[in-house]
Amino acid sequence: MRKKFFKIFFLVWLLLLSSFTMYYNVAFALEPSGNMIYRGIDVSAYQGYINYTEVRNAGIDIVYIKASEGDYLEDPEFRNNYNNAKSNGLNIGFYHFVRARSEEEAIREAEFFSRVISGTEPNCKLAMDFEVFGDLSTYEINNISKVFLEKTQELTGKEMVIYSNTYDARTIFSSELASIYPLWVAQYGVSIPSDNGKWENWIGFQYWDRGNVPGIDGNVDLDRFTEGIFISSGGEVPNPIDPSPEEIKNVVYYTVKRGDTLSKIAALYGTTVEQIVELNNIQNPNLIYIGETLQITTSDKPNTEPTSTTTTYYTVRRGDNLWRISRRFGTTINSIVMLNNIQNPNLIYPGQVLLIRRAVRPNDTHATGGTFYRVGRGDNLTYIANRYHTTVANIVRLNQIRNPNLIYPGQILKISNS
Predict the structure, then answer these.
(1) Which of 26, 117, 281, 370 has its CA at 20 to 30 Å from residue 313's CA atom?
(2) Which of residues 143 and 385 earns the better pLDDT score?
(3) Which position among 31, 104, 121, 131 bears the catalytic label?
């Protein structure tokens, strides 16, 4: 009798527990804004070359493309990603990674983002990706977000969406922002994102950051989107007024290493200790920490001559650092970092081969690096030759290829001498 009682009690307990779990999952989950779900990905230069025909054939409907970061950095693959995704009929959205630390910087970033995407025709809402806050207060974060969102919408005429993980949506972003701008939420390993107490639903859900999609080498973020992600007004993004050359900054982010001082860093980048202190709100100039990230504005004036670009490869030599290499090729540290997926800008090795995209001024007789291409999965010489408007025979000759039917992913091919 006692055994039977405990058995019945245990079964009732299990039933109550499963009922509570089911209720909890339903009651505390954030639902999509509609029943129609679109498969999506979001990409940047870190994915390298993408075969969007394969992406489309894999059933992807929407691609979000990184356009810019801060008030200086255009993603190196932005134009390629946009043009190739558009030519394959995919729905397209753009996102900007916010670095602003004040409302004034938020305005500059909105202007820069708008310039980068001008002339394009996205059909998905523009996304604000603000996730690195430093020592900003919640009040400051929301003010910066509000200014960036409003200014971008004003300049582009396009609607906005906030990208955020579930934790920041719950603890950082305000109910005021949630009442105006929809949510693209990131939460991995779950089928339904958790309720954050502010947004009633989501129009975007990034559910995994290590997805595999045909046409893309390596991992890619996977998303689901509802019809709410689409903008209500189409057309081309207008071109805002360009800033004067004096307003353009060459900004880099530097990670402090052992033995560094502000004087040493300032000398390395051609700036002053005072400027670094002001830009990073440093209370004690004699106290910086290993691993700390500093924003640096260099003293270079931008080149106002019309330029084009060329791509080349450089083999690192003993004594090199990214600053010297960037100066030699007329590019920036961040461009080299992005193109080569460098995790630590302070750590490069003799013999390491770096991809360099450099500016070429008219009549630059030293710009003879040529055009190079890194072979991707599924590539063949016919495809590469057609892409660069050359011939298979020319590529074979330039690279001394013995078997034109045998090339390898990761192999670097010279396409032309100029």
Answers:
(1) 117
(2) 143
(3) 131
Full 3-state SS string of 9-73: HHHHHHHHHHHHHHHHHHHCECEECCCCCEEEEEECHHHCCCCHHHHHHCCCCEEEEEEEECCCE
- pLDDT score of 90 more than 80: yes
3-state secondary structure of 162: strand
- Which is nearest to 173 in space by CA: 202, 204, 200, 198? 198
Q: Could you tell me which residue, 13 or 36, shows the higher pLDDT? A: 36
pLDDT at 339: 76
Q: Where are the alpha helices (DSSP H) in 118-255?
A: 138-156, 166-171, 175-180
Q: 25-229 sits in which CATH class?
A: alpha beta
Dist. CA 413–CA 411, nearest whole Å: 6
Q: Domain 248-297 adopts which CATH fold?
A: Membrane-bound Lytic Murein Transglycosylase D; Chain A (3.10.350)
pLDDT at 73 over 50: yes
For residue 6, the model assigns a pLDDT of 53
The residues spanned by each domain of the chain are: 25-229, 248-297, 308-416
Distances (CA, A) of 317 to 366, 400, 414: 20, 26, 22
Residues 350-359: what's their mean pLDDT?
Answer: 74
pLDDT of residue 400: 75
Other beta carbons within 10 Å of 269: 20
Using CB atoms within 10 Å of the CB of residue 220, give its burial: 0 to 12 exposed, 13 to 18 middle, 19+ buried. Answer: buried
Return the DSSP state at 195: P
- pLDDT single digits (tens) 181-195: 999 999 999 999 999
Q: How far apart are CA 18 and CA 15, in angstroms?
A: 5
Flag whether pLDDT at 80 surpasses 50: yes
Nearest CA among 231, 264, 254 for reference residue 92: 231
**Is the pLDDT higher at 17 or at 314?**
314
- Among this protein's residues, is 247 annotated catalytic? no
Q: Is residue 75 among the annotated active site residues?
A: no
